[in-house]
Amino acid sequence: MAAEVVLDGGQDEGGLGLGAVIADLAGESDRRSGRFTGAFDPTPAITPSGVVTAGNYGAFQVVAPATWMEIYGVNLANTLSQTWGGNDFVGNQAPSLLGGTTVTVGGKPAFVDFVSPGQVNVQVPLGSTLSQI
């Protein structure tokens, strides 16, 4: 049986604990509370069609050098959210590492402007070729 676990922050009968609703695919559910254990896979993964251009409100599947690209997925950063700031620059060189995240395009490091677990924004490196993403 496939199941979905939804943590809701509820309280058990003693007023403590974390609540969860466990629902199977048929829609039947069972409320449970207490300690939950399981495995978490921290491997970054890009969602299907999760790489798009950021220009003109995105959604184009072709990128060119010096354009902005958005990457969507899970576990893409080790921080909740970070945008580059003045301290991230070395001279006038933009950062290629932000929030524990690096991106390469065609083997070249990209400038990383924004990171979160679900999204990364980068500038396609100069010298990259126009390519389908």
Give a brief description.
The protein has 133 residues and is mainly β. The chain has no helices and twelve strands. Helices cover 0% and strands 39% of the residues.
Please describe what this structure looks like.
The protein has no helices and 12 strands. The protein folds into 2 domains: 3-33, no CATH class; 45-132, Immunoglobulin-like, CATH 2.60.40. It is 0% helix and 39% strand. The protein has strands at residues 3-7, 19-24, 29-33, 45-53, 62-63, 68-74, 82-83, 104-105, 108-109, 111-115, 119-123, 131-132. The strands form 4 sheets. Strands 4-6-11-10-7 form a 5-stranded antiparallel beta sheet, with no helix packed on it. It has a 3-stranded antiparallel beta sheet with strand order 1-2-3, with no helix packed on it. Strands 5-12 form a two-stranded antiparallel ribbon. The protein is mostly beta strands and 133 residues long. The relative contact order is 0.17.
CATH topology of the largest domain: Immunoglobulin-like
Instruction: Trace the largest sheet across and list its strands.
Output: 4-6-11-10-7
What is the CATH C-level name of the largest domain?
Mainly Beta
Radius of gyration: 20 Å
Main pleated sheet:
5 strands, antiparallel
Unreliable segments of 5+ consecutive residues: 1-25
| Whole-number count of domains | 2
Q: Which structural class do the helices and strands define?
A: mainly beta
